[in-house]
Amino acid sequence: MTNRAEKAVGLDIGSRTTKVAVVEDGMLVHSRVVDTGTDPLARARELLSALAPNPQPLVPIVATGYGRHLAREKLGFPVITEIKAHALGAARLFPKCRTVIDIGGQDSKAIRVEGGRQVNFEMNDRCAAGTGRFLEVMAMTLGYTLSEFGPEALKASESASINSMCTVFSESEVVSLIAGGKSKQSIALGLHESIVNRLLSLIGRVGAEPEVALTGGVALNPCIRALLERRLGVKLLVPEHPQVVGALGAALSAANGARP
Length: 260
Known about the structure:
There is one protein chain. This protein is of the alpha/beta class. Helices cover 42% and strands 20% of the residues. The strands form two sheets. It has a four-stranded mixed beta sheet with strand order 3-2-1-4. The chain has a four-stranded mixed beta sheet with strand order 7-6-5-8. β6 (108-114) and β7 form a beta hairpin.
């Protein structure tokens, strides 16, 4: 049996962004998101030092995400998987949640949740298709900022057919479609639909049971949300700050007494 800490910190070192979350008495009281850049350890230390000059002795800290093993090796923090972290975080925000769709910078996940814990999951971590990185590259190819990409896709009156889900081949296909006279908005919608088709295959392997939460930075994309809701036939639960759900889960794990 573990003693619950009144205050705890979660650190999520992702491939694109690094996040910190602080919980107090089980409630999220602070969070922050920064670009990971080329030195994830430095970014992690920066986030933690902003909380206190030397936070480790003061509160328990658990790390998760792409760089969690670096945090364990260099900082001595206990770690949990991203799957567990997102299940814990989403269940805290949405107690009736039974399915979590997490779309991160380099991977996407579908997680079945029961009683606040994951019972099954599927993960795409071998290809950038269906991830934030794919969206970044395709937006750049079309001349959009990432924040413009989803809204512009929603303005399309028709969808261009995108046959390849490989980032390199899709980029070439987009260039060819532009040269062939297709509108940028229709191409953008086609790209979003191709991502959602890939996600639906992933989700189908675990089964989407309502209520369904959408987490990760891609949850901020309105076109991805709209297409997923239409295809799944459900209203998605989207946190106010979807990027910090994993860090929240890590903090909850720390509060519950996780150890290395």
